[in-house]
Amino acid sequence: MAYFEHEGCNLHYEEYGHGTPLLLVHGLGSSTLDWEKQIPALATRYRVIVPDVRGHGRSDKPRERYSIAGFSADLIALIEHLNLGPAHYVGLSMGGMIGFQLGVDQPQLLKSLCIVNSAPEVKLRSRDDYWQWFKRWSLMHALSLRTIGKALGGKLFPKPEQADLRQKMAERWAKNDKHAYLASFNAIVGWGVQERLSKVTCPTLIVSADRDYTPVELKENYVKLLPDARLVVIADSRHATPLDQPDHFNQTLLKFLTAVDTTTQDH
């Protein structure tokens, strides 16, 4: 368990293994715990660094406005603090958004980018977009985090044999700081770097669950905007692919990382 400070905020991160650095960045309302099924598989080959995003997990939760650019700046500070040089980056959902932000702002810091069930923008355009956002925003204000966690668990892990995942989800969600959770949700809405995706120069893997919140088609559209990207669809999976299909996800990721490492060695 380690901490570093950036702009007056103490940020928690964990480190495992040795080798080329690999960052694993969680989604909204989550923490380092989300990668429990990846760390053992990846740490045998990589130096795995798993941070808690500002406002999450064991990191400080300052009472201020959060932004995706701010989260990205925290990670840039971590990369510099550990003197990592170019690193592999894997981001789930909000962690994917932070990865896109990092990739367009500081492409030289990334050796590769893996985006899981995410998008390069969250813009409200139609009346329905605004209505859906308002509905979620209202529920988040009205309900307890435990209730939200239980509802999310049921949605993400609906199968009878996923009871333990549902239970974990409810318990972990309940530990969130409500203010930080809402501030992070607000950071996502209206954010976007889609028009700058041509700046992401590293090899990029887009992973989409077949039953993610947003359709596979959305990912197919933005993959075309990235200079060196491909899309992999994981079947029978929902938004939390690294948890509901860990083996398939780990194999897909390792295959991609190995290919990137081999190509870089050849150059």
Structure in words:
This protein has 267 residues and is α/β, with parallel strands linked by helices. It has one domain (2-126, 191-266): Rossmann fold (3-Layer(aba) Sandwich). 43% of the residues lie in helices and 18% in strands. The chain is built from ten helices and eight strands. Strands 1-2-4-3-5-6-7-8 form an eight-stranded mixed sheet, with helices on both faces. A hairpin with a 2-residue loop joins β1 (2-6) and β2.
Helices and strands, with pairings:
Elements: E1 2-6, E2 9-16, E3 21-25, H1 39-42, E4 47-51, H2 68-81, E5 87-92, H3 94-105, E6 110-116, H4 127-142, H5 145-156, H6 163-174, H7 178-188, E7 204-209, H8 216-223, E8 229-234, H9 241-244, H10 246-266
Parallel strand pairs: 3-4, 3-5, 5-6, 6-7, 7-8
Antiparallel strand pairs: 1-2, 2-4
Task: Write a brief caption for the model.
The protein is 43% helix and 18% strand. It has 10 helices and 8 strands. The chain has a single domain (2-126, 191-266), classed as Alpha/Beta hydrolase fold, catalytic domain (Rossmann fold, 3-Layer(aba) Sandwich).
Keywords, separated by commas or semicolons:
alpha/beta; Rossmann fold; 8 strands; globular; AB_hydrolase_fold; 3-oxoadipate enol-lactonase
Tally of distinct domains: 1
- Tell me roughly what share of residues is in helical segments: 40-55%
N-to-C series of helices and strands: EEEHEHEHEHHHHEHEHH
Put simply, the count of helices is 10
Q: Poorly predicted ranges (pLDDT <50, ≥5 residues)?
A: none
Mean of residue pLDDT?
A: 96
CATH homologous superfamily assignment: Alpha/Beta hydrolase fold, catalytic domain
Radius of gyration equals 17 Å
Q: What's the CATH first level?
A: Alpha Beta
